[in-house]
Amino acid sequence: MSMYPIELKNRTTIGSDTTIITAEKPDRFQFTAGQFTKLILPNLPATSSENWRWMSIASAPAEPELMFYLANGVSAYKRHLAGCPLGSSVAVSEPRGKFLLADDDREVVFLAGGVGIAPVRSMLVHAAAKKRTGSFWLFYSNANGNGIAFDQLFQNLTGTNLTYVPTITKLADDEPWTGERGRIDAPMLRRHFDDLRAPRYYAVGSPEFVRAMVLLLRRESVSLSQITVESFTGL
Ligand SMILES: Cc1cc2nc3c(=O)[nH]c(=O)nc-3n(C[C@H](O)[C@H](O)[C@H](O)COP(=O)(O)OP(=O)(O)OC[C@H]3O[C@@H](n4cnc5c(N)ncnc54)[C@H](O)[C@@H]3O)c2cc1C
After folding, report:
1. Model pLDDT for residues 88-138, shown as the tens digit of each residue
2. What is 156-216 written as a DSSP string?
3. Single pTM value for the model
4. Number of other residues whose CB lies within 10 A of the CB of residue 224
5. What domains appear along the chain, each with residue ranges and CATH number?
């Protein structure tokens, strides 16, 4: 497997639970929006696979840097990534994965939980750059409103027809918020579009989130052939 050594460029904490990092994009590194890679920390000992994790690429192929959006954690890997100086060496493997947009203009509904937004960001920025004409809905679920990553980007995305629906699952009734409240369910989907059986669906996030989304869609008689999933095992 090819490995590409690169330099860590930037690190931004979002709320208390997540971090966006950017790194150099290697010259020969090509990927399709929605794919993931092995993000390797060569300065950690390579014992028991501790120095790498699968990470979805949050940047779009035409963007100049690679971006990742990580759940913070206490593993040696996450602590190293949170504390190492900018400019440190990291590495990526060849991209892989089949969580990819179909090459047509059919309506698409994204169902993203937490850091599951990473590959969706890549696909939407790519679609906007290509001026894809079909409609998109993005249902983006977060536990709290302290740091909804890429919120401004999705609110202001031009170049494609996006209906952006952020939802917060743990919000006191008296807390002000203009988006949806609670977990994504069928009534929430119906508040934003009529025919649940028509679009293609892309569900991504923790295995628990993805399972819940597939169950919801199957209860609404959405065909499995219309559902593409990416489960972030390990979350
Ligand atoms: C395709 C794919 C894309 C991903 N993209 C992202 C992303 O964009 N952002 C992000 O934050 N995370 C992503 N992940 C998850 C990521 O690889 C890490 O597992 C996660 O971030 C937790 O890492 P950690 O070091 O905090 O915890 P860890 O120390 O790795 O582990 C946390 C817990 O999960 C268990 N575990 C670890 N790996 C697996 C596994 N493969 N299967 C089952 N159990 C496991 C461990 O035993 C432990 O109990 C992705 C995973 C996959 C498979």
Report:
1. 999 999 999 999 999 888 999 999 999 999 999 999 999 999 999 999 999
2. T--SSEEEEEEEESS--TTS--SSEESS--HHHHHTT-S-TTSSEEEEEESHHHHHHHHHH
3. 0.95
4. 10
5. 3-93 (2.40.30.10), 108-231 (3.40.50.80)
- How many Å lie between the centroid of ligand 1 and the Cα of residue 230? 12
Say if ligand 1 is within 6 A of residue 193 CB. Answer: no
Q: Is the shortest distance between the CB of 158 and ligand 1 below 6 Å?
A: no
For strand 89-93 and strand 108-113, is the pairing parallel, antiparallel, or unpaired?
unpaired
Work out the number of other CB atoms within 10 angstroms of the CB of residue 133.
9
How far apart are the C-alpha atoms of 58 and 38, rounded to whole Å? Answer: 13
Q: Which helix (H) or strand (E) holds 129?
A: helix 117-129
Our answer on whether the CB atom of 181 is closer than 6 Å to any ligand 1 atom is: no
Residue 83, φ and ψ in degrees, nearest 5: -110, -15
Cα separation, 58 vs 115, in Å, equals 10
Q: Give the H/E segment covering residue 117.
A: helix 117-129
Ligand 1 near 36 CB (within 6 A) = yes
Best residue among 19, 49, 50, 55 to mutate for probing ligand 1, ranked by most atoms within 8 Å of CB? 55
DSSP H or E run through 80: helix 76-83
